[in-house]
Amino acid sequence: MQFLYPAFLFALLTLLIPVLIHLFSFRRYKKVYFSNVQFLRDVQQQQASRRNLKERLILASRMLALAFIVFAFARPYIKGNSDGNATGKQQVVSIFVDNSHSMEALSREGSLLDEAKQKARQIAASYPINSRFQLLTQDFEGKHQRLLNRDEFNDAVDAVKLSSQSRNVSQINERQQSLINTRAGVSAQYYVISDFQKNIVSGQANKLPAVNIVQLKANSLPNVAVDSAWLLNATHRPGESEKLVVKLRNYAEKKAIKIPLKITINGAQKAIGSFTLNAKSTQTDTLSFSGLQAGWQRGQIQLQDNPVTFDNDFYFAFNVKKQQPVLLINNGTPNKYLSALFASDPFFKVNQTGEGNVDYSALANYPLIVLSDVDAISSGLAQQLKTYVTKGGNLMFFPSAKGTIATYQSFLQPMGAAYPQALVTGDAKVSAINMQSRVFKNIFEAAPQNTDLPRVKKYFNLARGNKTGEYLMKLQTGDVIWQRFASGSGKVYVCALPLDESFSNLPVHALFVPIVLRVALLSGRDMPLFHTLGSNEVIETVPLNSSEKELVKLVKAKQTIIPDVRQQDGSTLLYLPGQLTEAGLYELKKADSTAAILAFNDNRAESDLDYLTANELSKLVGGKGNVLTGDAANTANIAVAANSAMQLWKLCIILALVCLAAETLLVRYFRTTKSKASQQV
After folding, report:
1. What is the dihedral of CA 528, 344, 508, 433, to 10 degrees?
2. pLDDT tens digit string along 563-595?
3. pLDDT above 60: residue 88
4. Furthest-apart CA pair in the chain: how many Å?
5. Is 250 in a helix, a strand, or coil?
6. Residue 322 above 60 pLDDT?
7. With contact defined as beta carbons under 8 Å apart, do 612 and 198 qualify?
8. Phi, psi of 178 (to 5 degrees)
9. Count of alpha carbons within 13 Å of 175, Cβ hemisphere only?
10. Cα 287 → chain centroid
11. pLDDT value, residue 79
């Protein structure tokens, strides 16, 4: 038998008190005067031996009762079988304290994070003083990859703050064991203190090893959050109307009524709304605003939803460009139709170059590249354009009237796009345009009837690529003459007609200009509106070159973060593992100039306040660990889990009560006198 709190055994010195009372009688004798001694005949006589026996039994019961009370406070226990192999080994305890945003919720004892800290300290106090402890949080900080004594552990627990990170239970357990496995000759115990939202087991297939789970219960709270947002326009022009789609999610079990929402751009309110959401449902709505100037726009969506407030703000950022660059690659002679088309809109800044003079390093600067009138495409140009499309670029291809079919095939086929085959002659007419395509959306105010469509004299038959494309135009014969394909992160638009009036009237047709301009506008390659904290995603940004004198950095107010910058295929990649901890808008700066604005939001997985049940947690540990939920997560049960042993303090309390009851019975019913009749006998 051992004791959790052996220091309480010093209280056994109080056993001297009843002994002293027994040895010294502090009662004062009292004189009683009798008028006649014959009354003394009625006084019962005591026997000294019976009196001494009674007093000693009472003394023993009192001392035992007091001793058992002291033992109860010292918390005696008998080690279980799990500790049998730990004899002589150092006890190492790894405790995970969930500090994600969901722990901001309130319970009867305050916030869940404060309660989790208290439980962690209770667990540490349940182990012997020479035990060593590891504190682990959602941040997976390097400083937590070492063992602490109890005082150091308590100080580390006090310093834990809310984090934007969100890990699943498999990652947590793997992190706990990574430190313990490096320590030879230790006996390890694992604890996870959390509210155990259902997302904590996302992707978890196998049962956990022996781990002790302490689940904290929050009060039932309503919660509505902005789940996501996106802009409908791919390209943003000064002064034009923008449409922002906002996706709201109600995580509660009851209906949310008239939740106010507003959108601010650069600190100015641009749109407001009020929304009602059914229980456990999502809803999208489109809000419009306009009047934007050229430059980076700092957006924020705000809703009023108490008491869960960490997900009430949603940040986004985008760039309104003065001009959009377009690269036209030709055979050395500019195509008159394309030149006239883009000259009609000053928003497009056109750069024309011959096929042999293409600056490959600058391709990533162009949202759209138009390749036309090139007779034979070199392998170098083909490879560079393939890389450009894979990384999100948009390519529009028009064959040359004298083109080499083999080079077209080797160029387009690796991207999964259709490619020109044989030349087909004979008059034909475009019979249909795909009104369901994004290219034709917003071109027509209403669905046109009896539209005058282009006429074709001859065209190249398009061989099917290894990817299914979306047709834009097709002939009465069923042959597609303009098609769009997805390739990597980009798009390829393949036309079967050269821009030559001897093939068709497409270059001078009324549909040609809006279609090409619409493709150009859809080709706007904006950076993502926002990023998620804790995802450790690689951020691809505008091309930047970092040096020792001109560092790339993220700045928000007085906070400055220097990311790891890498160059890859003409793009700049930012690595921010664990450096960002606060949601908001950050300026991406090189030296003193602002290159971009990046928006970061908290992980919305923490907004779902839906928790695992006790049965689900029991299945997770598979009977190898302890599961403490709600009121069961108290000090006594934590001590049981901590020691994997038979606790005897309740038995001590029962024995103390038995001893007190025995004392009462001895005082009342144990007789030490003989009656007068018994004396005469």
Report:
1. 30
2. 888 877 667 888 886 678 788 999 998 878 888
3. no
4. 155
5. strand
6. yes
7. yes
8. -65, -35
9. 23
10. 27
11. 63
CA–CA gap between residue 495 and residue 506 (Å, rounded): 11
Residue among 385, 371, 369, 372 nearest 326 (CA): 369
What DSSP string describes 253-280?
SS-EEEEEEEEEETTEEEEEEEEEE-TT
Q: Which residues of 111-125 are buried (b: 16+ CB within 10 A; e: fewer)?
A: bbbebbbbbbbbbbb
Q: Contact, 632 vs 214, CB < 8 A?
A: no
Contacting residues for 395 by C-beta, under 8 A, at least 6 apart: 368, 369, 370, 371, 385, 388, 389, 490, 491, 492, 493
Report the chain's mean pLDDT, rounded to a whole number. Answer: 83
**CA 589/CA 582 separation, integer angstroms:** 18
Is 214's pLDDT higher than 60?
yes
User: Cβ atoms within 10 A of the Cβ of 538, count?
Assistant: 13
Alpha-carbon distance of 156 to 179, in angstroms, equals: 17
Separation CA 120–CA 156 (nearest Å)? 11
Half-sphere exposure of 57 (CA within 13 A, CB side): 18
Q: pLDDT class for 677, splitting at 50, 70, 90?
A: very low
Distance CA 358, CA 201 (A): 51
Are 598 and 572 within 8 A, CB to CB?
no
Using pLDDT thresholds of 50, 70 and 90, give the confidence band for residue 638: low
No. of helices (H) and no. of strands (E), the chain: 13, 36
444-470 pLDDT per residue, tens: 655 566 678 899 999 999 987 667 889
User: Going by DSSP bridges, is the β-strand pair 593-601/531-532 parallel, antiparallel, or unpaired?
Assistant: parallel
Gap between the Cα atoms of 395 and 493, Å rounded: 6
The secondary structure of 451-498 as a DSSP string is ----EEEEEEEEEP-SS--EEEEEETTS-EEEEEEEETTEEEEEESS-
Contact in structure between 607 and 225 (CB atoms under 8 Å) = yes
φ, ψ at 525 (rounded to 5°): -100, 85
Residue 200: partners with Cβ closer than 8 Å, 6 or more residues away: 167, 168, 169, 194, 612
Share above pLDDT 90 across residues of the chain, in percent, rounded to a whole number: 31
What interhelical angle do 379-390 and 405-412 show, nearest 10?
A: 30
Amino acid at 66: L
CA distances from 621 to 146, 347, 505, 624 (A): 25, 61, 72, 6
Given a contact cutoff of 8 angstroms between Cβ atoms, the answer to whether 194 and 166 are in contact is: no
Q: Residue 554: which of 569, 539, 567 has the closest Cα?
A: 539
Exposure on the CB side of residue 681, measured as CA atoms within 13 A: 5
Which DSSP string do the residues of 508-521 spell out, in sequence order?
A: GSTTHHHHHHHHHH
Q: How many residues appear in the chain? A: 681
- Residue 250 phi, psi dihedral angles, 5° rounding: -100, 115
Q: Do you find a cis peptide bond into 454, omega within 30 degrees of 0?
A: no
Do 377 and 408 meet the contact criterion of CB atoms below 8 Å apart? yes
Q: Map tokens 């019979």 to a residue.
A: 431
Burial level of 295, CB count in 10 A (0-12/13-18/19+)?
middle
- Interhelix angle for 16-23 vs 48-74, to 10°? 160
Neighbours of 286 (CB within 10 A): 11
How many other C-beta atoms are found inside a 10 Å radius of the C-beta of residue 19?
12
CA distance 389 to 380: 14
